Amino acid sequence: MARRTEKQNTSLPNKAVNNPDEWIGMQKQLTTRDTINRDLKDFNSILNNISRFINLLPEEEQELISIIRTTKVIKRQFIDQPGFTSGFRNYVVKGSFRSFFIDNNGIDHTVQIAIEDWFVSDFYSYISQTPATLYVEEVHSEQS
Questions:
Q1: Between 22 and 126, whose confidence is greater?
Q2: Topology annotation, domain 2-140
Q3: b vs e for 102-118, b when ≥16 Cβ sit within 10 Å of the residue's Cβ?
Q4: Cα–Cα distance between 43 and 35 in angstroms, integer?
Q5: pLDDT given at position 17
Q6: Cα separation of 72 and 7, whole Å?
Q7: Is the pLDDT of residue 3 over 80?
Q8: Degrees (nearest 5) of the Cα angle 1, 55, 136?
Q9: Model-level pTM?
Q10: What is the DSSP string of 16-83?
């Protein structure tokens, strides 16, 4: 499970999308939102992670929680992939993710493994709002 700012439809295929129009259609499907309990206890793990670096006031915690969305992804599902701009910073609540690229010889090279209590995405794509160069996929989840 990853925390992100939009709900992801777990019925989507766990394959790379080659056609940008197909991805846009999938993004539209992702806008369906569930009602989420905004109780602080639901967000203890991310709030504890952040509190290692800064202290948030209670109203700042509530503001942060108001923009977080919980998403469940399935094993081998991509949350980022080359050619598409990363729109989210993803916090891993449960499971693990790997970010990687594929070289010209078709060999994949792992750049990062993200486990519980870590953030993962193609950060350069997210920050610069340019197309991603990395794949980020779920490697292990409770459903696996």
A1: 126
A2: Jelly Rolls (2.60.120)
A3: eeeeeeeeeebebeeee
A4: 15
A5: 57
A6: 8
A7: no
A8: 25
A9: 0.66
A10: ----HHHHHHHHHHTT--------GGGGHHHHHHHHTT-PPPHHHHHHHHHH-EEE---TT-EEE-TT
3-state secondary structure of 9: coil
Sequence letter at residue 53: F
How far apart (Å, rounded) are the C-alpha atoms in residues 81 and 20?
A: 11
CB 90 within 8 A of CB 119: yes
Beta bridge partners of 109: 101
Q: pLDDT exceeding 70 applies to what percent of the chain?
A: 69
Long-range contacts of 102-111 (CB under 8 A, 24+ apart): 102/135, 108/135
Query: So where are the chain's domains?
Result: 2-140
Q: Which helix (H) or strand (E) holds 126?
A: helix 123-128
Chain centre to alpha carbon of residue 1: 9
